[in-house]
């Protein structure tokens, strides 16, 4: 699959689950639970020992899922993620070496930014879809509003601190394509194999976002 990051974020709206998978044996059931809740794009973070195996398992069992590898902070992780079946890559920041690794692995890439200078750096590399990280609280909403003026055409995926309670504050902003977050599938619910609850959380997020589209 050769996808544009802009298209991936459109498919992900309202939310791209950020998955922290500790047990590979739970990966496919977790992805099925999210899929049942209407989620088509998921990010598996490479911050647990068997995350690459979990990613490969989801790719094998649910090939229809658009799958990202997240928390990529080392250059070699890009090719590893691609080999495991990831369609796109996500980092919490943006450095010249990570950008080169994404290009070498020929992966659509969502680099992370937090400041106007970082947005400019990402823009210089040609990236117009960016992760805003960490998007904690009302400060991040204000910042996204402020970034809209100077950065026309840039679309953000705020992540890190998003919950069901503040979801709409972000989604209602015109420069927010979608949000990312673990609240949809928290490690505690994954450990408990609470698949119905995870499906329900995904449905609730989509319903909340749907109410926004109807009032627009
Ligand atoms: C990420 O890796 O994108 C964030 O750590 C997710 O943050 P959250 O747990 O607040 O959703």
UniProtKB/TrEMBL annotation:
Stored PROSITE patterns: ALDOLASE_KDPG_KHG_1 (PS00159), ALDOLASE_KDPG_KHG_2 (PS00160)
Q: Does the keyword Transferase apply?
A: no
Q: Which reaction does it catalyse?
A: 2-dehydro-3-deoxy-6-phospho-D-gluconate = D-glyceraldehyde 3-phosphate + pyruvate
Q: Can you tell me which family this protein belongs to?
A: Belongs to the KHG/KDPG aldolase family.
Relate the assembly described in the record: Homotrimer.
Which PANTHER family has this protein been placed in?
Answer: 2-DEHYDRO-3-DEOXY-6-PHOSPHOGALACTONATE ALDOLASE-RELATED, 2-KETO-3-DEOXY-6-PHOSPHOGLUCONATE ALDOLASE
The identity of this protein, by name, is 2-dehydro-3-deoxy-phosphogluconate aldolase
């Amino acid at each position: 699959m050769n996808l544009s990051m802009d298209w991936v974020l459109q498919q992900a709206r309202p939310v791209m689950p950020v998955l922290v998978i500790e047990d590979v044996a739970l990966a496919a059931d977790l992805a099925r639970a999210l899929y049942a809740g209407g989620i088509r794009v998921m990010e598996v973070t490479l911050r647990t020992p068997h995350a690459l195996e979990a990613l490969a398992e989801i790719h094998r069992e649910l090939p229809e899922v658009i799958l990202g590898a997240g928390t990529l902070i080392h250059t070699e992780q890009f090719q590893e993620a691609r080999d495991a079946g990831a369609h796109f890559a996500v980092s919490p920041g943006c450095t010249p070496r990570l950008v080169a690794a994404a290009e070498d692995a020929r992966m659509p890439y969502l680099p992370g930014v937090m400041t106007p200078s970082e947005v400019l750096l990402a823009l210089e590399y040609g990236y117009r879809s960016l992760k805003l990280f960490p998007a904690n609280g009302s400060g991040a909403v204000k910042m996204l509003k402020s970034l809209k003026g100077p950065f026309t055409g840039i679309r953000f995926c705020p992540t890190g601190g998003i919950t069901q309670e503040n979801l709409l504050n972000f989604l209602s902003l015109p420069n927010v394509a979608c949000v990312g977050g673990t609240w949809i599938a928290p490690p505690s619910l994954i450990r408990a194999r609470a698949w119905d609850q995870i499906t329900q959380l995904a449905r609730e997020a989509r319903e909340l976002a749907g109410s926004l589209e109807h009032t627009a």
